Amino acid sequence: MNFDELVAPIGKDQFFANFAKGACMLIRGERDRFADLISLEEIELRINDGCNNLTPVQMIGSGRRAEIIDKQLAWSAIATRKSELLQMLRDKHSFLMMNMSQINPRIAALIDSVEAAFPNDSVQADLHLYVSTRADASGYDAHRDFPQHKLYLQAIGSTHWQVFETTKELSTDVRAVAADSEADCLKLAREFDLNPGDAFYMPPAVFHKVRNQDGPRVSLSIPFVKITNPDVPRMDRTYVPFRELFEGES
Ligand SMILES: [Fe+2]
Questions:
Q1: Domain ranges of the chain
Q2: What pTM, to 2 d.p., does this model score?
Q3: Which of 46, 198, 219, 249 has the fewest Cβ atoms within 10 Å of its own Cβ atom?
Q4: What is the whole-number distance in angstroms between the Cα of residue 220 and the centre of ligand 1?
Q5: 121 CA → ligand 1 middle, Å
């Protein structure tokens, strides 16, 4: 899947026309179109690789070892405590895995394609996986994400969305509003369900609240930020065909 397929049936031109206006976009798509992007096995593998999935490979050369990394990328590492995670999954907590833009070659190609859709390397994107293993799992309070834009893809299961307008001026450091304070400063602007194959674009700083009411879900959230420093490199997501290289040697 690439960016054009992601924004179908709206189409790229319409997407960028709405994007320029700062408008949210609800994109209803074919039910199974995100089904092959990620598998439960890939998520299970990544959860179980133990918190070290962002430790850079160290290459040996000239008698030394060295990391081969780009610095100053837009997104950074997380770590996980496994037994707590397991218990929290049993207690109906959702979880988020950031920095998943290379979890498999299909995702890597999609995120590359999102970045390439914008001119002059002007944005960097990531993939955040939001996963719930039970219906009515935990979710964030109403909140706004800033400075990132969001493209949110519903891959498995469904999510219920509430999008809010503010009813009074809020300081920019107010990022979330607890449920019992929503009436003080937020007004529901739209409410909808995202089902498999649906996508939603949201510009920065829009208050929203998302819940999975009906069952387990896997949601792919693609945050992207504008890059103002032209010296910041794009993440190199080249696929390394290790097995082919290994077995191809005689
Ligand atoms: Fe959010």
A1: 3-50+81-229
A2: 0.87
A3: 249
A4: 12
A5: 24
Token pair of 8 as six digits: 């179908």
Spacing, Cα 217 to ligand 1 middle (Å): 16
Ligand 1 centroid distance, CA of 175 (Å): 10
User: What separation in Å is there between the alpha carbon of 143 and the centre of ligand 1?
Assistant: 6
Q: Alpha helix locations (H) across the chain?
A: 3-7, 12-21, 40-47, 82-90, 105-117, 182-185, 242-248
The DSSP bridge partners found for residue 58 are: 67
Pick the CATH number of 3-50+81-229 from 2.60.40.420, 2.60.120.650, 3.50.50.60, 1.10.3720.10: 2.60.120.650
Give the DSSP letter of residue 164.
E
Listed residue (178, 181, 182) closest to 165, CA to CA? 182
